[in-house]
Amino acid sequence: MTLKMLAVDTATENCSVALCIGDQMMVRSDIAPREHTNKILPMVDEVLAEAGVSLTQLDALAFGRGPGSFTGVRIGIGIAQGLAFGADLPVLGVSTLAAMAEQAHRTHGATQVLTAIDARMGELYFAQYERQENGDWHALADEAVVAPDALCLESTDGTWALAGTGWPAYPELAKGLDLTTTESGVLYPQAQDMLAIAKYAYQRGEAVAAELATPTYLRDKVTWKKLPGRE
């Protein structure tokens, strides 16, 4: 069976869409802060037209579940749910951090990756990944939002590729880590790398109904406390 899957992501400054039909890949991507709502659906239309398929012919829809911008994550999950409801498709949420690890492998062959997104407020969204023999990724610890000086690594063996906006935001951070690092050039997640990860999740039977799609904010408790009347 030829797997047909669409992925959308608006969780960071980058807005991207990708469609796979078996090994064939159609991709659109644009770094466009605050323009995601205007760009994402035309991108979806473009890749579907390029492949000559409709949404209803797909098997599933993947989306960037975060972490990232609160607004960006909400836009992405809303678009994914709307498309999935209309076409009666199951959905798969993919970590933006894991997607950057996959991109570091796709572009540089990295198999050990430290992913960090600048979360503002003096913090990072962080995760540490190792590539498995089957091509899937294993997180050595749960994704976390942490202060740069509180970064905790589970392993320091081998060479670790750095991916994400967190590293240029804190240029001295990598120098203080007791491990060997290399630059990957990866700053933002891409939908095409989410597809690579979503394929494994789909094969494991992890796709869910659109109404069950959930975001990953990591900092949601902080947001809750900021609401009037909340403590």
From TrEMBL:
GO terms for molecular function: tRNA N(6)-L-threonylcarbamoyladenine synthase activity. It holds the Pfam family TsaD. Keywords: Acyltransferase, Transferase. Residues 31-154 form the Gcp-like domain. The keyword Transferase applies. CDD domains: ASKHA_NBD_TsaB. Coiled coil: none annotated. InterPro entries: ATPase_NBD, Gcp-like_dom, T6A_TsaB. Belongs to the KAE1 / TsaD family. TsaB subfamily. This is tRNA threonylcarbamoyladenosine biosynthesis protein TsaB.
